[in-house]
């Protein structure tokens, strides 16, 4: 079976419960459409768990993007790190990530790792795809963390995407639009309660798109979509 989740945000307990609920096995495949780090309690543990499983593929989200832009490369020597770490750009990015976007726990847990472990994470993060095309049962899918940007179809032809696709949102007036004809679009990034109380903690399926960030870290639920059956699964936030 092929499963899709997004925006787990360090909610390791809910993630593990979801794997149990869907009876996830070595014969299944899980795609996670960004944002496994930040905000929640166990982001680095969750990230490393995903890294160890060949049948789990993470796409980049805006929080992974912020983490990368805030990190000093673990391949620099001590003097190079110290020189770079005081640069205005790194400090500005780090403040935005740590203090305004829930990156504090992620940064703290990352800094507790060995140099080798930090290098593994760094290499993994910079290798992540921003967009994935996928076909199943004669249906074409696009996995995108945020939303298609205004130049998406041209970017798709070139196979080169900007970070805009990590930050764009499907706005309320776009909810009924067929955004990229011929494709089922699956996105995260924007918790579904943003679109109205009727969607709180639920996956939205509307006009060839699925919005699957169910706001787990904000007290709602972790959602999971099975592409083979279109069945949806939910695990309520532990602290509810």
Describe the structure.
33% of the residues lie in helices and 19% in strands. It has 9 helices and 10 strands. The strands form 2 sheets. Strands 3-2-1-9-10 form a 5-stranded mixed β-sheet, covered by helices on one side. A 5-stranded mixed β-sheet has the order 4-5-6-8-7, with no helix packed on it. The mean pLDDT is 91.
Concise description?
With 240 residues, the chain is an alpha/beta fold.
Give me the oligomer status: single chain
Distance between the termini: 29 Å
Tally of extended strands? Answer: 10
What integer value in Å does the Rg equal?
A: 18 Å
Q: What strand line-up does the widest sheet have?
A: 3-2-1-9-10
What is the share of helical residues?
25-40%
The largest pleated sheet is described as: 5 strands, mixed
Unreliable stretches: none
Key structural traits:
240 residues, five-stranded mixed beta sheet, single chain, alpha/beta
Helix/strand layout:
Layout: E1 2-5, H1 12-21, E2 29-33, H2 43-51, E3 56-59, H3 62-70, H4 78-85, H5 88-100, H6 104-111, H7 115-126, E4 131-136, E5 139-144, H8 152-158, H9 164-167, E6 184-187, E7 204-205, E8 209-211, E9 221-226, E10 232-236
Parallel strand pairs: 1-2, 2-3, 5-6, 6-8
Antiparallel strand pairs: 1-9, 4-5, 7-8, 9-10
